[in-house]
Each structure stands twice: as C-alpha cells, then as structure tokens.
Fold:
Amino acid sequence: RKPPGTNTQSRTAMAIRCQFEGSNEIGVVSRLTNAYALTCIGNSESFYSVFQSELADHIPVVHASIAGCRFVGRVTVGNRRGLLVPNTTGDQELQHLRNALPDSVVVQRVDERLSALGNCIACNDHVALVHTDLDRETEDIVADVLGVEVFRQTICGNALVGSYCVFTNQGGIVHPRTSVEDLEELASLLQVPLIAGTVNRGSDVLGAGLVANDWTAFVGYDTTATEINVIDSVLKIDDDDDDDDELAPKGGPTDKMRDALIDTIV
Structure:
C-alpha cells in the first residue's frame, strides 16, 4: 500500500494541512492518485512544495492548467490507470499532461455536458460513483480508461458525488448527514469502510477540502485535529503494519467525531 522504499520514520503519519493563496479549498486546485499528483499553475510555490516534499520521491507532481484555469481538481478525475479531462482542455495542456505523467497513465479528453468531472465523479482504483445524469458514453469511458466498475449514485441526496465524498482503496469519508442505511449501501458498493465527516472546521464539501491516496492525504488549513483524526483513521493514513494492536487507541473515528460534537454543543 505504501510506495516502495517509504521510510515511515521520516514522514508524518497523518493528513497534512495546507493552503493555496489563503484558500483552504485545496481540492479545487489539486488532484491526487496513487500514480501522480496534479497541482494548478499559480503563485503559491509553498503549496506546490508541500506536495513536492511529501510525494516527489514516489510519484510525479505535475503543474497543470485546464482551459487556462486553476481549478484542476474540480474538472479532472483519475486513478493510477488514467486521467479524464474535459473537452475545454487545450491541445497544449493535453500534450503537457501526457508528457509529464507516467506512460502507464492514459490521458483522455471527454466530451461531456457536465464538464466539472471532479464534482460529478468520485473513484478509486476499482470503483467509480458518477452523477445520475452523466452521459452513457462518458460512463463507458470512465469504465474503460480508469478500469473501474461504475455506479450511478447520490450522496445524501446530492448528485455531485465528487464534491460530497472522498475515498481511496483503503476507506472513505462522506457527507456528514448521510444516513446509516446509505452509508452501509455505499460501503458495500465500494467495498471499503466509510464514515460520515467534515473538513475545514465543519465543511461538508469534502472534495474541496481533502485530497488523498492510499498512503497520504492533504487537507485545508482550517481542518481541526479531530477531523484529521477521523480522516487518518478511516483512510488508514496512520496505519503501520508493525504497530502493536495493544498500543492502538481504543476510541475509533466514530468516538472521536462524537466527542467533537459533544465539545461543540457544550
């Protein structure tokens, strides 16, 4: 699960807080998978350097733009096999992505009316959830290029599945008002553990405040310690195969979230 040669002693086993030019919505300007990371072209070199220092030894971190704009995280979707970009992507931008990404990653332009692909599709390396109104042709492209099983789904009644959930091959976090029944149904579809939660001090737009892969995650700077604990637990960011189970904390992510809610009420 962790990239080859990872020295777990040298990195922090928790989600990393960062900002882009004063904004906590880092998922708008970045995209993270197990094979590559995209960050937008901008003036915030400190933002880029956070990704670079954590990821550069294992996967490429690529500066990119889509249609000359910064919101690369909201208009693209991908996994270790491929990257889908909207039809507004320029030829030079497309060629830059193909040159910069690993040869094993297929970069495909998609002619889709719902062009904010990152808002309308959420995926890991095995399963994708898609907007209920997505074109059938786009659904087929998602299945073929990303190599995933595709399900049309909503999250807590919201069709923008990419905005209201984030999941990896290890686990996932969904809109805080998701019912227990919906949570169980989604978990059985995705075959990973899920929890309802928030980022950036109570924001339910998880896709905007969190990007993650199987071994690390980045969150907006306003994300609280409790929210990070929940994210670390369900995405297994803080897992270490050598950990002694007897030393593991007794309180799971649900307990931590409940304690935080109690603190807020009090």
Q: What stands out?
A: Residues 171 and 191 are 9 Å apart (CA to CA).
